[in-house]
Amino acid sequence: MSSHDxxxxxxxxxxxxxxxxxIAPLPVVAASARKQNLLDLDRAGMEQFFVGKLGEQKxxxxxxxKWIHHRYVTDFDxxxxxxxxxxxxxxxxxxxxxxxxxxxxxxxxxxHKWLLGMGVDGKNAVETVYIPDKxxxxxxxxxxxxxxxxxxxxxxxxxxFNRNLTTAEIIGQVWVTAKHLGNVPAQIRRLxxxxxxxxxxxxxxxxxxxRAMNIMRDDLGYGLASKRVTLSTSGLVPMMDRLSLETEVAxxxxxxxxxxxxxxxxxxxxxxYPIAELMASCARYLLANKKRDSVTFEYTLMKGVNDxxxxxRQLAQLMRKFGNATQVKDAGKVNLxxxxxxxxxxxxxxxxxxxxxxxxILLDAGVLTMxxxxxxxxxxxxxxxxxxxxxxxxxRNAEFRKSLQAKSVQDRGDSTHESKHxxx
Length: 424
Ligand code: SF4
What we know:
- This protein is of the alpha/beta class.
- The chain has two domains: 64 residues, DNA polymerase, domain 1 (Orthogonal Bundle), CATH 1.10.150.530; 294 residues, TIM Barrel (Alpha-Beta Barrel).
- The protein is built from eleven helices and 14 strands.
- The strands form three sheets. The chain has a ten-stranded mixed sheet with strand order 3-4-5-6-9-10-11-12-13-14. Strands 1-2 form a two-stranded parallel ribbon. It has a two-stranded antiparallel ribbon with strand order 7-8.
- Strand 9, helix 5 and strand 10 form a beta-alpha-beta unit.
- Helix 4 runs parallel beside helix 5.
- The chain is globular, with a radius of gyration of 23 Å.
- Bound molecules: iron/sulfur cluster.
- Iron/sulfur cluster binds next to loops.
């Protein structure tokens, strides 16, 4: 477990960045001003609440965690092994508030997507996706309402940003989906992996994300092994360094380009933390804990942008250097992701043959390289396609919609122009 401060009211850590996300975060939305939402607390926080606030023994906190995360009971009257007095105290001081399901949608390939309403006004909503695959079930969890980092190939970025999710709203995504799947930790394992890879940059919501990952990894929570919980970041180096010391979770990095010039065009954050700094931080991450054996590098392939043989060779070189720096065999694993188009994007998916050729260059150079199968694209649940409902506090969504309108006017103009020529 991590050594972070377990104060449940603590908000996201300040970081030395000037980003769109620097707008003041909304206060954490409690479902009730005076009651503690128990979904906001990991084991340490629960023990503190039960002992400090309720004057109870620690094991009572453990009993209640099992009711919530193993049996999906949110009504204290249903927690039948608690005494009447304790149940009355809980009614007075606590509650269990889970996100509400706005809709859920299964895909023909077994993938399942939920749109979950967040906060009391319910106007913000995030998407959570479950992807079953041979012997495993992976849940892709969101950490923010929207995202302020504005990566040029990302659907979430076009929606702008509203706020960080609370711990309850992050673990609530696991709670809702695990309940739906009939998952029973340590018995019926439908949920075997969690990736913090949904909407948002998780390291910009550090404390809430770490606390939620604690619950995912706790036997009183969802009992997932640390290596089965993966945090994916676009490369916030200082927070990666902090994470390396405070948790044991696996790390994935959104790389998407093998040189700074190109990566800077795709991921603006690269200008703040260029590739050399990012890779050095990845090496520190790997070496900070002996249980870690690799870092995964995500690389979305976009036709004519970052999918040329030269890019593959540069990527192989980067991985070779990473291996040398860490002295760990297969230290860097590459995940190639065919780009998933969304309305308004100018990027196009790389053809299958080129994807395989790109992979071959890496494999021939000794780099462990997988091609991620596209899942759930019939319900817009594929990687990079997630969109919730974001009350945008930046100008990004308005600007995106304006550019879409301008594009459609221009397209209409072009087609009129073409048909006039055809008629002539
Ligand atoms: S790719 Fe990730 S970090 Fe970049 S804008 Fe999208 S959600 Fe944010």
